[in-house]
Amino acid sequence: MDRTAPHVSTLRLQGFFLNVGPFAQKYPIHIQSVAKLHGYRKLRNALVHYRGPSGEFIAEPSEQSLREFERIVQAITSPPKIISLFGKSDLRLFSPQDPLMNALQYMGKEDYSQVIVQTEGELSLLTVEEIAKWLEKQAWKDTISLQEATIADAQSAAAQEDKQAKNVGFMSQDQTIDDAKQKFMLALEQGEPRIYALLITENGEPTEDPLGIVTPWDLIHH
After folding, report:
1. pLDDT tier at 146, thresholds 50, 70, 90
2. Domain residue limits, the chain
């Protein structure tokens, strides 16, 4: 009887479970999944070390449990890179001097809640929330001319209200979906300004060309 294979398998499992603790500390979004894995570990130990009077297993995992275990392990050991899920080659860039109406029409056509703006080589966002703030300020005037307004007008109105706000984050093309989820979550937990979207660039720098965009809504099913 070959006992080498089970021994190696046990060592690999032990190494894996030793690593999931630090992993959960780095990515708290997986805390519940890691807790499930430890539950599976206890089940595995019971199956290996405790048998019935005739040597039969005292329990047997269901197919659903096995599939769930495989899904969790796959998500932890091989998280997909965000560029593979949210990379886009047809991203449209606006400039601060573009008419605000153009951005609004594009948002309506594509069902977007933000557009990418490039100002002196640096990327930012114009969101529907910023446009709403600009409209609110214009409401005190006798007339509102959307035809004459520019993207810069809407962005400057939001900047005057909160000069410290940064509504966009940046990720490199090598980062994973876990990194994206973590960035959104930490901004909320630490009371930082809301991040409406993450822009993917080659090295995660705001001065690089955008390769993709991801919003919290995009991550719901991933």
Report:
1. confident
2. 4-78, 83-219
